[in-house]
Amino acid sequence: MTAPGHAGDQRLAALTEQVVASFAGASSPRYRTVMQSLVRHLHAFLAETSITEREWEQGIEFLTRAGHITDDKRQEFILLSDVLGASMATIAINHPGTDLGVTESTVLGPFFADASPRAGLGDDISGGAVGQPCYASGTVRDVAGRPVPGARIEIWEADADGFYDVQRAGGPVANRAHLFTDDQGGYRFWSVRPAPYPIPHDGPVGDLLTAAARGPMRPAHIHFMVSADGYQRLTTHVFADGDPYLGQDAVFGVKPSLIRTFARHPAGVGPGGRVLDTEWSDVEFDLVLSPNRPA
Ligand SMILES: [Fe+2]
After folding, report:
1. How far is the CA of 64 from the centre of ligand 1 (A)?
2. Residue 38's closest CA among 106, 86, 91, 101?
3. pTM given for the model
4. What's the 121 CA to ligand 1 centre distance in angstroms?
5. Are 186 and 139 in contact (CB under 8 A)?
6. Which residue from 268, 243, 263 is spatially nearest to 253, judged by alpha carbons?
7. pLDDT, tens digit (0-9, with 9 covering 90-100), for 63-112
């Protein structure tokens, strides 16, 4: 197809303005702003690519497939947002970073689940998940270095085979819990050493990656979400140093400040007096929260 001529350009411009104007009466100014911008950019995208009718149908078929594969365990739209870099772009806009040492944010991903079980400090949250034992610990502090006691930390992680518990139909809750920091802002728990894993790529997002000759792998990580009164909620990961996929994360989530060494230890006695009959690992990951924005 050829690009529209002058008359076509004028018709498209008039159409765009007509659609933009159709949102002028929205009662929410923010809704009006967002939708009018969306329409302008969408129309500009269609014009720039001289989209064909067949291509537009294919786009609608893609989104239809994404909808059909999505349920309460599978979230294809978060995957789509992630692989297009839209999740990380939204984080960059909303957490531009400070000089105050606040822990950087990264993607939520599609595997967070509400209502995780509560764990005590030092508990093993693996729930029988396959993998080598791994002890994680650290402190939650504010930007002045003061401990944040009572902070709620949500933790979730894939097992050594690369699967989250929610991907194993009918399986137990595993590698997933929440706990609260102690009076010194400290936390600690046992889980399993994280492994790299592919994002689910048996659906439309997988086809998108294949068509782009992109891989589905994510480097090994543990998810953290930290919330405490008076602070912005922090959604982040700790990544394992030396992982071969750190430079090619399928969802662009790696930030160098979030990489830590997961040190390996021989069988023996570990933290808390735990007796380990296999190699095990530990990692320290301190977290710094940003104060709430002024209202
Ligand atoms: Fe993950």
Report:
1. 25
2. 86
3. 0.90
4. 22
5. yes
6. 243
7. 999 999 999 889 999 999 999 999 999 998 988 776 689 999 999 998 99
